[in-house]
Amino acid sequence: MSAKKERRITLRLTPEQYESIRAKAETAQMSTGAYVRAAALRHRVVVIDGLPELTHELKGIGRSVNQLAVLCNMGKLREVHLGETWQALGEIYSKLRELTERETH
Q: Is the full-model pTM beyond 0.90?
């Protein structure tokens, strides 16, 4: 449960500064307020290019596995071979490691 945000800070920015912060927040997939709070409180804000694509792939695999589980539970499937699924997950894991290592060095 997050604490209620009761205090407000108002600051003035040039249009260029505002756009720069807004673009960085969008890239980080954060609201502008969350991004500014994280930056001001010296939290590390890491943007990993390519992460949305990997997330999309993982969601697709998750949906497919869930559909297979439903069909198995209904008795419509008795056997499922997940070799290709494991291979796809391994590839995603490798890409994710590569992306995170690139961002941390």
A: no
- Please list the pLDDT of the chain residue by residue as tens digits (105 residues): 678 888 988 989 999 999 999 999 998 899 999 999 998 988 777 777 778 888 899 999 999 999 999 999 999 998 999 999 999 999 999 988 888 787 666
Residue type, 7: R
The per-residue DSSP string of the chain comes to -PPP----------HHHHHHHHHHHHHTT--HHHHHHHHHTT------TTHHHHHHHHHHHHHHHHHHHHHHHTTS-S----HHHHHHHHHHHHHHHHHHHHHH-
Roughly what angle, to the nearest 10 degrees, separates helices 15-27 and 32-40?
90
